[in-house]
Fold each of these.
Amino acid sequence: MHGAILYLLLGQSVPLGFFPGGAEKELEAERLLLSIPSAEGFGAHLLYLTEEPHPAGSKRNMELADYVRERFLEYGLEDVHFHDTPALYSYGREASVDILEPVELSLKLKEDRNPEDKDSYRYSNSGVVPYHEYAASGEVEAQVVYANGGSPEDFAKLREMGVDLRGKIVLMRYSNPYSYRGYKVHLAETSGASAAIIYSDPADDGYARGETYPQGPWGPPSHIQWGSIVYDWLGYGTIPFTFHWKQNPDGSWVEGPERDRQLPRIPSIPMSHEDASEILSRLAGPAVPREWQGALPFTYHVGPGPVTVRLRVKNEDQIGLMRNVIGKIEGSEEPEKWIVVGNHRDAWSHGAVDPSSGTAALLETARALGAAVKQGFRPRRTIVFANWDAEEDLLGGSTSWAVELREKLRRDGVLYVNLDSAASGPNFSGSATPALADYLRDVSRYVPHPSAPTFYDAWRSKTPASEPEVGTIVGATDYTAFQENIGMSVIDLSSNGPYGVYHSQYDNYFWMSRIADPGFLQNAALSRFLAVLLYRSANVELLPMRYSAYARAILAHLDEVEKKAAPAREIHLTSARDAARRWEQKALALEARMWERELSREGAARFNALLMEVERALTEDRGLKSRPFFKHLIYAPQPTYRDEVLPRIWEAIDAGAWEEIEGYERELVTAFEKAGSLLDEAAAVLDTL
Amino acid sequence: MHGAILYLLLGQSVPLGFFPGGAEKELEAERLLLSIPSAEGFGAHLLYLTEEPHPAGSKRNMELADYVRERFLEYGLEDVHFHDTPALYSYGREASVDILEPVELSLKLKEDRNPEDKDSYRYSNSGVVPYHEYAASGEVEAQVVYANGGSPEDFAKLREMGVDLRGKIVLMRYSNPYSYRGYKVHLAETSGASAAIIYSDPADDGYARGETYPQGPWGPPSHIQWGSIVYDWLGYGTIPFTFHWKQNPDGSWVEGPERDRQLPRIPSIPMSHEDASEILSRLAGPAVPREWQGALPFTYHVGPGPVTVRLRVKNEDQIGLMRNVIGKIEGSEEPEKWIVVGNHRDAWSHGAVDPSSGTAALLETARALGAAVKQGFRPRRTIVFANWDAEEDLLGGSTSWAVELREKLRRDGVLYVNLDSAASGPNFSGSATPALADYLRDVSRYVPHPSAPTFYDAWRSKTPASEPEVGTIVGATDYTAFQENIGMSVIDLSSNGPYGVYHSQYDNYFWMSRIADPGFLQNAALSRFLAVLLYRSANVELLPMRYSAYARAILAHLDEVEKKAAPAREIHLTSARDAARRWEQKALALEARMWERELSREGAARFNALLMEVERALTEDRGLKSRPFFKHLIYAPQPTYRDEVLPRIWEAIDAGAWEEIEGYERELVTAFEKAGSLLDEAAAVLDTL
């Protein structure tokens, strides 16, 4: 009788990844792990981490690196060290926006103070101005055009309406529809605009969504979303991150003659809706298409003008350090095999959600795992803790580390677990490489949730499907290098709620402790989830990848790109589809029998190495034509950071390069056949026992 | 060879309804008809009709009846006469709304003046107050609760939230989601509320939609939507329309002891968003569910309170006359067969769109048809022109006329063509009994459109489907009695655009002539369409009903009600579906051969009578359990005026009366079999030739 079934008959469940024999000890360790991360512990970390603003390169962020390092040491982590790399930073020094026509009016460019909240006084320091990192410095006097969300479709619409953007200042919303802010500015720049403004419309994150700070979680009228606008897709993953700056023999840095093309050439500034409405309410020209209308109390118009604005930005570029803090729990049996977990530390302001909740959760998790080791529960594989730097600026810390360790990670990287914040609310959201979706769901059954028996229950209650929906790993966060460049399996965790203060000074301790997660129940629970996930992943006997699910996801993606092509041309990716189906069949056969009998330690190691290799088989070395850093065949973010699947074919469709598709399809067939033959080898390992 | 095909080979098309031989003369007449209705003629009618407000029962509306009668006579219509019936009207005499807490503030309850627009001074007469017709008079002082669109789902949500409405004033939006205003007030009343307010949110018809009056077509901050709130579904079609008022032998009317249950028992008032925001912005309690948020610049809250309001309404009930104006163009060959066309005359205010554009179009059409008759083109069947009264109050004029002539119409009523306004913009919208969908599309190919070669092209460009989408005949307008009680085939025409001034004083000549239809191009074109449609319908050799399309529509409706039932119980309407399919097959067979050979005059008359009978077969005499006036088996409006299909089964599902469904299905089977055997008889007519 199948051991797992026997175990179930006894009224217990066997966690995915274990034979019944190993499950008991695992669950004992996990019970211990669940008892350690606490709301008090989390809150103490959060309070310290959010005491002051701490952008990358700031003195405070270096102090916080010391704090993280000291905690890692205190909790018993091994090989604790800094990983330092130079990078170009850009800081806002001066900014002003004055309306010159049809009225004279200087905009505030400040977030309001709330006497109850000591962290809302940031702008009392007159040196603090809102800014878009890497925006060009300059002064522009021009009429304004409203361009909705600044997405490619929005700019296309403006062209269709005959609106000439040359020399204009383009005013855009942050989130309608979602598009990376840097890509908005890029589109404005390449349309000939002289400057950009991006504001937070109350329809997207303000009063139209619900109660606003300090009564509720949404953004108050003066809140401003800071952010980087680096044109990263033009040179993604370029190492070093110092761009056109060169180091002198004496160690000093000087700016090279030509500004790197990843850096905007026009000024840009973020803005509150309180300020933006002074401009927007005075625009004339045609009324906007209906979906461009936001929640400000007037009909929006496209312009240009009659509003004329003088916008002045002075950003200062300088080279600084990116300081990752690294620590490990060495594995007992396969120390060379790594489970990496990371969250960034740098924040635009106080960053209670983004990212300090993640750092605090990481520390609570480290505390739990360190304690477990002391009590004799050392995991089989090594867990590497990483506290990244400069995520906000350019995903710099994680990328530089991953690229530096590329060969090691391709050989031994089992899994990268990412956080980019822990909990801003009670709605758990888990994303994973498709092969790990079932595993992530399974882990979620073992962790209690504050508002449902388990994370699984809470998660399922938020999705219309009968099973919790596992998200896709595509976006702009620290997992990018791990999936896209290394080809590692990835899991990403977060717990979400209404969150309208993103990248503003109101994302702070007051907001988190009074509004979003009073008592830190959600964040403490997420720390527990993370502890169990890491320990279990470092301990599984056979890796829990189910590649049949990956193949099925790919079959759906093949449909997607065929549909994407359809308006222009009918394409039929039949041979890729057939290859994916053959791979799926092999995976299903393997998954049906891999738990039948326990393997020897050597057999399991060989089996696991083959499963790891399958994800690597879904990469190829050349990388995307437009972005060689992106070597994954199945997923990539678009420059807007929207999802892109089967990116080579996707981009060929966009470029109308129909003749390339056949070659890309062959590349997929080869990859799926490689993946299938790796599973054949794994099956052979089972047979030899 | 099929005559029609021969005709096509000659490069001409044969209008649906004619043999090639008859087509030529028809098209000659239609060319003449197309040349007559003019923008100037339309504009002159509209100017006169909109000179003053003219609600039903007002002196001005009686003067307009004279105007219509005189034009009918002038244009050569026959048997021109008034059709008078007494009805209960209710007029607003006094109204005030004062906020008592947390501030003291008296609301304006007036629409703003615009010096450019002489028709915007209505409220300069202090006797004019906005009102909901038939609302109870009374004074209420209570806290306010916001109930979104006041739909059944919204009240259910409030119950779920634990909000007690007893004694409260319920503030509701007009259009989110759409629900008949009278049903909103009814739900408030039956929830124990003491009064109702319904306001126009700018998200629905104001600045969030686009430019507002006087710059554009949407509603300005002070605009108020007047309207009737009669609980008509509680006694639909009750004749007389005097409710509990009784006539003395001397002819005077007195109110009976008990207020009719179709009349609300609580006060209610319509309101601008300018006024409503004074209340809404001060409500506390939980923030609203996201879809309840409108476009006013603050987070909406449910209440109750702390806003306390004193609302005072004094409406005066009195019996007045409903005066329909009727005129005819007598048919040359089948004078007993009637094509009826109607549009109402009464307006809440000046009513440029609703309804005067329709009356003006009807007059231009009458002028064209009268002129055609004088030039020798008298149609085969009789065209009856009707200018209804009291549509706004209780669909009174059309209903009383139809019910009075019920036997005549059931025997001889070929088609009812409805207008409820002509054009508020360029987007043509045609609705029809499913059997007439193809016919309506076909007619639209023959009429030029101002912004596309033909109405067909303009219509198709606005629908995602490859063919223009023909709407369903369900709603609250003058066609109700004709379809629901008589069982006549119906066509409804309108041409639409952004229209945010519905039922306000701004629906006036200024708005129409400057903003919505400058030059009256759209309205003149619609008059031409109507002229062609009426003449052709009165002249077709074989009636153009295609019952195969009706059967297919019913098959889709069977799916709909099965799906509606599904959450509670699985039902399978297999025998109804089979019967509908058999009917469809018979219809398809008939439609394939009916144009093969011309019929004798007598044969055609017999054939046509049978086709007319099919629509009648889709009614039964008992009527709906809840509303016996509704005798149609396929369509009915819900009390909210949303669509209801297969209404007997629909309402049994709602009531959980599962045991009734089998009987209703048998009733459908019988009807479809009757419909099929009528087609058999029609086929036999073809065979005897």
Note: Chain B has three domains: 27-87+320-539, 91-315, 547-687.
Amino acid sequence: MASEVRLALVGSTGAVGQEMLKILEERDFPVKELICLADPREAGSKVRFKGEEYTVVGASPEAFKKADIAMFAVGTEVSKMLAPEALKNNCVVIDNSYAFRLDKDVPLVVPEVNAGDIKLHRGIIANPNCSTIIMVVAINPIHQRARLKRVIVSTYQAVSGAGKAGLDELDQHISAAMTGQEPKLEVFQHPIAFNLIPHIDEFVEEDYTREEMKMVWESRKIMHEPDLKIAATAVRVPVYRSHSESINLETENPLTPDQVRSILSQAPGIIVQDDPGAKLYPMPLYTSNKDQVFVGRIRRDISLGENGVVIWVAADQIRKGAATNAIQIAEVVVEENLY
Amino acid sequence: MASEVRLALVGSTGAVGQEMLKILEERDFPVKELICLADPREAGSKVRFKGEEYTVVGASPEAFKKADIAMFAVGTEVSKMLAPEALKNNCVVIDNSYAFRLDKDVPLVVPEVNAGDIKLHRGIIANPNCSTIIMVVAINPIHQRARLKRVIVSTYQAVSGAGKAGLDELDQHISAAMTGQEPKLEVFQHPIAFNLIPHIDEFVEEDYTREEMKMVWESRKIMHEPDLKIAATAVRVPVYRSHSESINLETENPLTPDQVRSILSQAPGIIVQDDPGAKLYPMPLYTSNKDQVFVGRIRRDISLGENGVVIWVAADQIRKGAATNAIQIAEVVVEENLY
């Protein structure tokens, strides 16, 4: 890599922030200086990186003065408030929130799909929604070969999509269910143990949730296909980690399942797990703590003939769906000297 | 009802058989005599019906001599072996297994959809697959109004689809996961606690499972639409009871979500639960032990324009998906003197 970087990490104590620290270390990201920021109420707490302890500092405008790149792993409101401060200090911001994703001047990037957009940044690069990242990694290689006409997706989303609080809430609900107690509802709208909740984020238009519309709006932007037809149904399931997606694709050009397997096997960031006879297909229990998107159950869409394919996808939404993807973006920023 | 019936129940100790006894009692089915049959190894065990104890008799050809109607709640192999014996004794057979569902001479019936087929029986009436029943109750009223062109469905199926053994296995896997033990795999192919398994029943053609193809083959037969285009993805989820389905429908004629809500509200066997603002939509935790199919998240399929609708469906697959449906069939057989 070209040079060593002074890196600020906003949200360093959260689920995604903690995962980012692990991945920065695993991938040997060229960190010269690490500035760990978080909510001022968490100032003084400690986080670990490469065997050393770092003291968390309350995030404030001044904190960005000594950073080249600022990774934001916080909610939309905090990003909106602090990213402009980082920009004032000439930091390049890689933001995991929804705040800037659809802004015209902000590249929205999944490196396997549109790494070339990174160089167009004007200070902020946005990291997409987790379910969207996982989907576009899997479907873009098929689009490049056979042109997608229509995408129908139903998701099966893990509770850690709601952070550590989501994990704790599933645990609490499981024990409550086991002991006949009332589950405490803090993160989820309803009990999640032994249940499914077809409601993630708020309802925004035509009775679709924002989570569902993110998969439409963000996929179109990442894939540079503003008119791509997509309909999503997003469902929370009692799984700790890794989102799964059942996807039906309609293509302009015909494509056999064998061709799809071959295309995806050669595509970046994908592991094809598709051997029904050996009971091999992606499952969230085994795709967690991995950086790739796993694709299986590849078959013809028998409701469409030769121009349809059905796939089943699973991937760790905290890693590839958030932290890994953001760090891949940062790596390009460093390699190509875009800061 | 016309008359009182001598009823044989094959599989009276199983999950579906036990549910049938409950429902026969709830609906005050006109039972004159009840003959409880099961695997000969279970002979002598006791089951309860209307406050009385019945001794289970080993199922054998002779057992049908004193019955008018025989309800079969057993596996395909036992049905194949014993249903012909029931026929020889002039019993009308209502069979819950896969054995006869696709036979030309056997009506496959969901009373809300094709009750008229019951009178065509030649001794056997088949009860459809659970996921299929739940789907056709929800989609047939839309088909009757706007003609379905294409159905895409992804399922979220409860462990009790695999009977009591499935329930026990989820419990065992949950405790194993909590205590760091190895889960015991008896019913499922993989651990089901905190996981999803995109594999129900065996793989049969083009890498589709039989569960997925049942939704194609059986829906077409029930709806009298041999060419209806359907593609299904069937997934096991860590939910005790009630299957859920995410369904995208393409219609020949345009239809608004309001029209769909109105059609389904008036359709038999359906409860529309669709008020996103009030966080109201079907969830398996709350549709269990009910006889209706619950439909919500009704919205335009934005990938299709005015000729597409997306719905989210949940229903108790042991009741409406099996036992209740079979007893509804039996009620028609009795009311119309078809035995």
Note: The first strand of chain B starts at residue 5 and ends at 10.
